[in-house]
Amino acid sequence: MSKDEIRDALLKVGAHQLRSPISTIQTQLNIILQVYDKEMPGKMKRLVEGASKKSEDMLSLINDLLDMGQLENEHVKEEFTTVRLEKLFLSVIEHLSGKAEFKEIDLQIDKKDILPIVWGHRSGLKSIFYNLIENAIKYTPRGGKVTVKTNYDRRGVLHCEVKDTGIGIPCQEIKGVFSEFYRASNAKEEAKIGTGLGLAIVAKAIEVHGGEIKCESNIGQGTAFKFSIALAKIEEEEAKLLEQKKQDDKLKIVIIGGRTAGPKAAAKARRMNEDASITIIEKDESLSYAGCGLPYYISGMVSNLKSLMTTNDGDIRDPDFFRQIKEIEVLNRTRALSIDRENKEILIENFKTKEKNKITYDKLILATGSKAIIPRIKGINKKGVYSYHKVEDAEGLKKELKTKQAKDVIIIGGGLLGAETAEALSRRGARVTIIEEKDQILIKFLDKEMADLVKNYFESKGIKILLNNKVELIEGHSSAEGVVANGNFIPADLVILSTGLKPEVRLAKKCGLTTGITGGIKINKYLQTSDPHIYAIGDCVENTNLITGKPVYTPFGSIATRQGRVAGINATGGKEKFSGVIKTIIMKFFDYNIGSVGLNEEQLKTESFDPVSIIVPGPDKDHFFPSAKLIYIKLTGDRNSKNLLGAQIIGRGDILSRLNTITTAISAKMKISDISKLDLAYAPPYSSAMDIIITAANVLNNKIDGNYNGISPAELKNKLEKKEDIILLDIRSHSEYDYDSINGSSHIPLNSLRGRLHQLPKDREIIICCRSGVNSYEALRIFKSHGFNNAKVLDGGIVTFRGENADTVSLY
Questions:
Q1: How many CB atoms lie within 10 A of CB 404?
Q2: Which terminal residue of the chain, N or C, has fewer Cβ atoms less than 10 Å from its own Cβ?
Q3: Helices H, strands E: what count in the chain?
């Protein structure tokens, strides 16, 4: 690669990398100016306006540098192509007419004939028209006049004059205006926004085409730029053939699926290859929306559905956005019927016209997503039964709630989506019942004792949860009127199916791609399928669990988005790796936060690990801070390797920062002891001096090393139910014990324990309990030092055993 090619490539990549964040900053500043205009003090407003102006300057400079870099490339003539000059010219006029109108400038166009199709550098010719006319408007006072004359003569020469009644250019400075970063002295005095590259780009573009430009100007009387370029005329048929050939030479990337992963892959591919032909095929009307936000739309917390389809800058990600901003073709309401891998062709059908066509590809990305698992229940096709998976489902459900004023809603399935839907419906005033076959909710993410804490909170918010119940029948005539579960009839106005997702792989199977044991498409670390020209991403694929090394199905939006980025890079020639997943999940239920990462204890018991777990409740901030809230952390590690393998965190307090810390630790294969030594940030409004994560890691490390013997709340409940011969010893104060204690427990306050050890037998199993477990550990050390080898701590204390969800965090 030559130096020019390297420079051109760096300019392209650099421009895209810089343009996006600066554009976001500018948009955010403009939103602040619009929304908070009357609330901002004058000085603050001037600062924001200044920052907005500087970001606009930076964007202009980036665009101009990119244009100049393209024109200075020694291979620039290889980029010549057919240019529909009439269309290009009119698009520039249309874009700039608004600026002229705003300044009340009379913009006159004198064009005798329709400009032909010519052979030239498209962006270079556009820059000539745009920069000359924009400059004329910029430097012409309000109420002035700008005239643009064009003519394409019989010799094939394009003549153009752009004349204005503006400020003019000093005679001695006319020669310099075509130099890079040169600005006339009176232009600087006017303090007009500009990069000093506009006319230099014009001169370079005209030079590239073998033309010439002249400037005539007088101070205060305006300026006239005249240029002539010989441009070969091309007939329509020849133009079509040339355009088709150029299109055929482009890298053709086709993406099937336009919900989450697909659009991300398309956008990244465009950033990596400005010249590629990129097409998205999507069977539904809507595309590129935040599916995880649908419950919040149903609840009313998100009022406008379109906000789920917007960028951070507020642009709606509809087909026009992809075509105009990213030059990506979108074929929505279109389905892919089959893939011919040998000829690299896809047969597609438009739902509206029923027309079938073939589209070719060089690289294909499958992002076909997932589909709802529909259980075999009699009456499931009745009206009022909803499978809730996409925008159309959410719209239908919201309309149903509004028109029928449904009050009793049954959700079949207590997984992640079922729990989120329960909150959404509850906020709408519905009486919600979750019916779950298993003995707990959120079984794929939480162990039972943690799930029971969540269940208690759900029920405190009026959500009824029926565990160990199987729905056998949906009753009603034409519409659902209720369900029969375990032989009992439960009335309902609406029934919502939330029984899980499975990968949508029909198209992949039909063309012979390999699928895995989870049902998803098998992929390698580069996201390639069994066909190296076809990539697969998102909910349709089978991932690798980084903890077990085994296949796992993870239909999460975060994973789909990350895979989209990797696939976009690799489809354009990159070698980016996607190693696997560790299943990080977080959700919110009213003011209760629920998160998990890695594998839970029950899942680890089925693998080749020796899992050890602890539960630690505590405040998310310093306990004396007014806004401190209770959270519960369950950590699980491997006794042999002493690596952390999983965590579950729930409660009203901040769990996100802790969850992300643990995710990083597991990904890095850190030892539990390493986590306890992390130098985490501390201030009372954010955490304790020793963050609860470090406390939990220390407890788990002590348990693995044999310095801590614990028993889980579930194990204690089992012992109590079986009436095993144990001593349950409560070491809290007299007032705490009298207020609330576990039935059958004995009581010795911690401050009296050393003097009463002789009252306790050393051969019995003693389970020590306090409010949170902290003081129980102190008691355990006393017992151990006096030969009580069968003493254990109740993990998480009474606050975890009871499933208490009070706001207080006075745990000590």
A1: 12
A2: N
A3: 24, 38
Indicate if the pLDDT at residue 680 is higher than 90: yes
Distance of CA 392 to the CA centre of its chain: 20
Q: What dihedral do alpha carbons 657, 658, 660, 663 form, nearest 10°?
A: 180
Cα atoms found within 13 Å of the Cα of residue 195, Cβ hemisphere only: 22
CA distances (Å), origin 102, targets 138, 144, 356, 492, 701: 11, 12, 47, 59, 69
The beta strands (E) that lie in 237-327 are given as 252-256, 277-282
- Amino acid in the structure at residue 263: P
pLDDT of residue 181: 72
Compute the distance between CA of residue 316 and CA of residue 300 in angstroms, rounded to an integer. 20
| Helix ranges, 412-556 (H) | 416-427, 448-460, 506-510
Q: Are strands 408-412 and 431-435 parallel, antiparallel or unpaired?
A: parallel
State how far the alpha carbon of 638 is from the alpha carbons of 612, 613, 702, 759, in Å: 6, 9, 13, 37
Instruction: Tell me the two tokens of residue 16.
Output: 């895209």
Which tokens belong to 771? 């409010």
User: Are the C-beta atoms of 289 and 317 separated by less than 8 Å?
Assistant: yes
Cβ within 8 Å of residue 780, ≥6 positions away: 708, 709, 768, 791, 792, 793
Q: What is the DSSP letter of 668?
A: T
CB 192 within 8 A of CB 138: yes
Tell me what pLDDT residue 13 has: 53
- Collapsed DSSP state (helix, strand, coil) of residue 726: strand
Return the closest-CA partner of residue 450 out of 711, 653, 658, 648: 648
Q: pLDDT above 90 covers what percent of the chain? A: 60
* The 334-340 sheet, strands edge to edge: 334-340, 345-350, 356-360
Q: Rounded to whole angstroms, how far apart are CA atoms 222 and 97?
A: 19
Query: Six-digit token pair at 134?
Result: 């924009």
Helices (H), 103-184: 122-138
Among residues 796, 794, 452, 774, which one has the least CA distance to residue 631? Answer: 796
pLDDT in tens, 316-341: 556 666 776 678 888 988 999 999 99
C-alpha distances out from residue 333 to 285, 340, 530, Å: 5, 21, 28
**Under 8 Å between Cβ of 255 and 279:** yes
Do the Cβ atoms of 739 and 719 come closer than 8 Å? no
Q: Which two tokens stand for residue 369?
A: 């997503």
CB neighbourhood size of 228 (10 A):
19
Mean residue pLDDT of the chain comes to: 86
Alpha-carbon dihedral angle through residues 125, 126, 127, 131, given to the nearest 10 degrees:
120
pLDDT digits (tens, 9 = 90+) for 177-188: 888 776 666 665
Hey, CA dihedral for 433, 438, 444, 450, is it positive or negative? positive
Distance CA 616, CA 264 (A): 39
Cβ contact 635:613 at 8 Å: yes
Residue 47: HSE in the Cβ half-sphere, 13 Å Cα cutoff: 5
665: left (phi over 0), alpha (psi -120 to 50) or beta: alpha
In degrees rounded to 5, what are phi and psi of residue 360? -95, 160
Decide: 162 and 224 in contact? Cβ < 8 Å: yes
Residue 496 CA to residue 11 CA, distance in Å, equals 52
Which H or E element spans position 30?
helix 3-35
Q: What is the CA radius of gyration of the chain?
A: 34
Distance CA 744, CA 725 (A): 11
Q: Which residue has the higher pLDDT, 806 or 228?
A: 228
Tokens of 643: 């690596």
Instruction: Report d(CA 514, CA 524) in Å as an integer.
Output: 11
Report the distance separating Cα 116 and Cα 238, nearest Å: 13
How many Å apart are CA 535 and CA 268, to the nearest integer?
Answer: 14
How far is the C-alpha of 792 from the C-alpha of 798, rounded, in Å?
Answer: 14
Amino acid at 103: K
